[in-house]
Specification:
The complex is a heterodimer of chains A (104) and B (339). With 104 residues, chain A is of the alpha+beta class. Chain A contains 4 helices and 3 strands, in the order ααβββαα. Chain B has an 8-stranded mixed β-sheet, with helices on both faces. Classes of the chains: A alpha+beta (104), B alpha/beta (339).
């Protein structure tokens, strides 16, 4: 058993139900989630990255603080750990930031 | 003559799951009337598919009796207790017409929305001149969520009112909570409705419950006597937001937005339900007060490749949800080629 199989951060959540259940499908799902997080969380000053071979997504602040996100279920708690509050998609400034980022 | 069973319960209590199980045991002549707040139905498709999945052919290749597709009549876009009351009356009268000449009453099961007031519904059956002679109310079953039901009974007067009118109360999702919590909920239900039969259910399969002990009743009495005045206006005017979703929707963008939404507002996003396009095909996605159960593959009978989501909120304007969705889920924009 290699380190990745044993990895404590591997867990499934409801997002994975929509992924194609193959290695490539799961990898694509993770990359898509990282891209979606990267676009949605710019307003909070966060970047999200997932490299091929990684089983998780790295979420980081501009100053370099980072958190490993294993799945959708950990996204909100990781955001809160890095910036002090989770993402509220109904918050006016969050909506404005995201809309502006989308228009750029 | 028709024999009407009303199945009710607060948003996300487990009505459809329970009903799918019960419907499988009924004869094929029983009709389901499924009411939904939203202008488009999810439950009717689910129930029709669930009923189909119980069917099949025996080893001799004969189709068994249950394989006749059950009739599921959707009434959407409002509650049958108010806005859609006239439509329910018409449906029931047409069923009465069709049952004429039959020796036994035709079984009709009405699944209400989670926000239905049962008083006007019972009044319709007992006061309408045609229905009072041709329809009998055989049972009023109310489902209570085993996980969050106790909280709803404390904070939502509507949930109490539903329980108080029930002939039978079923505590759902019994496998998800410890037994003592089920006993606490049962004691509270017993105080609210001394006459009802109370049972618990897992995935729609019921099992009887012992009568609550005097100690459990004493504990529950604090809650039963304390209707939450603050909450009496809550959910009085729930808002419904409906959004069509294109086949090209990004499942990642949508999931990220939806997860953040239900986690950030567990008390105000009362319920959501929808059919969502994903890379692995369409899934039925739901949420109940901040919890998102594992999505199931959408029934193949649902037409098209697009999807839709219905969100019922307590005081969140549909306009705000729309703007949030448009900002966070740009892939959810419907192509405007028809303009």
């Amino acid at each position: 058993m290699c380190g990745q199989c044993r990895s404590g951060v591997v867990e499934t959540d409801w997002y994975t139900e929509g992924a194609i259940d193959t290695l490539a499908g799961r990898r694509a799902a993770r990359t898509n989630l990282a891209d979606a997080m990267d676009a949605a969380l710019r307003g909070l000053g966060l970047r999200a990255r997932s490299h091929p071979g990684m089983l998780s997504i790295t979420l980081s602040t501009a100053s370099g603080r980072s958190a490993m996100v294993a799945g959708l279920g950990q996204v909100q708690s990781s955001i809160a750990a890095l910036v002090g509050r989770p993402l509220d998609p109904l918050d006016e400034s969050s909506i404005r930031h995201r809309a502006d980022a989308g228009n750029r | 003559m028709i024999a009407v069973t009303i199945v009710s319960g607060f948003l996300g209590a487990g009505k459809t799951t329970w009903l799918a199980e019960v419907a499988a045991e009924l004869g094929p002549e029983a009709t389901l009337v499924v009411n939904e707040m939203a202008p488009l139905g999810v439950d009717d498709v689910t129930l029709a598919a669930d009923t189909d999945s119980q069917t099949g052919t025996d080893t001799d290749g004969h189709t068994d009796a249950a394989s006749i597709r059950r009739e599921v009549i959707p009434i959407t876009g409002g509650c049958v207790c108010c806005e859609r009351k006239a439509e329910l009356r018409e449906v029931l009268i047409s069923l009465i017409d069709r049952s004429r000449g039959s020796a036994t009453p035709r079984a009709v099961i009405i699944e209400t929305t989670g926000l239905a007031e049962l008083g006007p519904l019972v009044a319709l059956l007992s006061e309408d001149p045609v229905l009072t002679r041709n329809a009998e109310l055989s049972e009023l079953v109310v489902l209570v969520d085993g996980v969050g039901g106790g909280r709803e009974l404390r904070h939502r007067p509507l949930a109490r009112e539903q329980v108080q009118r029930a002939d039978r109360v079923v505590i759902s999702k019994a496998d998800l909570v410890p037994g003592d919590l089920i006993d606490q909920t049962a004691a509270l239900l017993r105080l609210l409705n001394p006459a009802a039969i109370i049972s618990s259910a897992t995935g729609g399969i019921e099992s009887p419950l012992d009568e609550p002990t005097p100690e459990a009743l004493a504990q529950a009495s604090d809650v039963a006597d304390e209707p939450d005045d603050q909450a009496s206006s809550a959910a009085a005017r729930p808002e419904v937001w409906v959004r069509a979703l294109p086949a090209s929707l990004s499942w990642a963008e949508f999931s990220l937005w939806f997860d953040a939404l239900v986690r950030a507002h567990p008390d105000r996003i009362l319920r959501s339900k929808g059919t969502i396009p994903t890379p692995s095909g369409r899934v039925v996605l739901q949420s109940v007060s901040g919890t998102v159960p594992r999505p199931r593959p959408a029934p193949p009978s649902a037409p098209g490749s697009e999807g839709a989501i219905v969100v019922i909120t307590d005081g969140i304007s549909p306009t705000v949800l729309e703007r949030s969705f448009d900002a966070f889920v740009p892939s959810g924009a419907i192509p405007t080629s028809h303009h």
